[in-house]
């Protein structure tokens, strides 16, 4: 029996500047003969205009700026559909998975609802009389978010970046109004799927699985289930029960319980459970769990979920110092986890294309040995396909709520909007075992400081509304008010560096400067360094006459910097920042484009390798590093290690080596020596052999056998050095017949770019996992 009709596909799209035509009802569109084009659902209106030849490819040159006039347009989607006979006469609802964003809905000429939030699903009940036999007509009107934002009331506490203040009043991805990593693309569209769904008489309307406990010997576990059912109330007293059956390999369980009311809880005990572990610490098995609502032996409703059993502890202190210490630590199944990962930014400026990029982008996290993904607050909330991948591959997800780098309204209306949004998102995503942390926002605590406001702890959204939602709908998962969180104790001290978790941006100077080397934080959730995309990628989005040089008059490089305000804007300096970082390492800015690209990628690769190694060498003082960032959401010059077209920069390969579960690393010089250590971020004791030699002379510096305990670090020895020398040390180690490699760059800049070019093939040859002559091309 058909219980869902997918309405994705080709719709009609009418559009015009908002206010130009005073159209308030769908039938006026035809009467006034408003022109239309074909539109894709899911889709974005700009992509429809491009397909119809009305806009150029927005990611080339400065074409993104041609989208600006359309910010003030309204858009009318129209679809005719026929309901199958099996659905006729049944209660149904229209389900819109994502609409961007101020929408009014009509079905067969009758207004049936409205919505004003890009992030949440919209369910619109229909009636038997409203759904017609034969052709039905559905219309969706989208109003300009800019005009809507202008009509919202504001107050003196609200602050936002000067180029995107609109984001404060519109529940829409903040980056779309322009960001330092994304262009201004204030899009509109029905960006996720649409369907007509039958409302069943009997249903399991809500299932929430959670891990209650895992014993310290990992031999037993308890999981809980909260459920909500819809059925005939009379059944509660006549043999109604809920049955839960789960299986993961040889591990199985089954439990039944009478249902005496429409909500309830049950607890399931397991012996020798198959536990879910982060990548590198074990497998990530999932139980296929079927929940059935049964009445007198007859199954009324059934749902199947994939459930992971894992016990998560999030341990943190309000402050930290170098002397007294502190904590910011994730434990999974009682095991401390050294978190290594990257920030997840928008996959595309046009979010209807996100899902097509999920798997390939997330595979990059697996390839580089990541075990954590931080979903940044300037983005959308990703869909189930994203979390399903993370569930299956052991990628822990840190999820920000969708607020970033601003002081948001503190009005009752905004609080209720955020309560509604958070309730919807939390209930949607809470069954995913990969999700280990909800975080209130990105850098909004810091924004209070930027804008001269004394204390972010007055923020009712992150201190009251969101924790209440978590307590109500997902009480078995941790919550952090902001990233970084500036607690009352930190604010009272007047020293923001006392926060145990920080974003290390600072001056963005030499990557081994004191700013990076002396930070007292435990967990770094943002840190980055610039590197050019590959030449072939740059040639895709920069037109030939603008390819070189990169100077302040090159508007296409500035546009892809990303800068929405032209050459005088703040982000216009980011290309020069990258050039300065090159000059810091190599003493000069290369004159050729090819050398500039290569030098920037070397600078970025050495920097990010150093950041990760520093964190691992200070384990457990340092408990995690989430670097910025894996892949771009549009073609640009940025901190990403993979460009929008999936071109891998040199940093990708270096990170892949230093994020191995077992890695041999060299620390910075002290007392005319460098120490050599082996880090083991796994649950297994490891033993092997290693060799370290000098690249130019091939002289052996240190070699022998080594072993390192589970989740530990071992000192392998010291190598004498001279501060007057610039040398490349190469490292190779063998474990169970597998060979791995790393390198260390000794000395003070400026290094010779020609010398590094000569070294690069030797670095690549250690394990032959990348081609040196392909870097930058």
From TrEMBL:
Residues 254-310 form the Glycoside hydrolase family 2 immunoglobulin-like beta-sandwich domain. InterPro entries: Beta-gal/glucu_dom_sf, Beta-mannosidase-like_N2, Beta-mannosidase_GH2, Galactose-bd-like_sf, GH, Glyco_hydro_2_cat, Ig-like_fold, Ig-like_GH2. Residues 36-192 form the Beta-mannosidase-like galactose-binding domain. Keywords: Glycosidase, Hydrolase, Signal. Residues 329-448 form the Glycoside hydrolase family 2 catalytic domain. GO terms for biological process: carbohydrate metabolic process; glycoprotein catabolic process. GO terms for molecular function: beta-mannosidase activity. It is an enzyme of class 3 (hydrolase). The keyword Hydrolase applies. Its EC number is 3.2.1.25. Gene3D superfamilies: Galactose-binding domain-like, Glycosidases, Immunoglobulins. It catalyses: Hydrolysis of terminal, non-reducing beta-D-mannose residues in beta-D-mannosides. Belongs to the glycosyl hydrolase 2 family. This is beta-mannosidase.
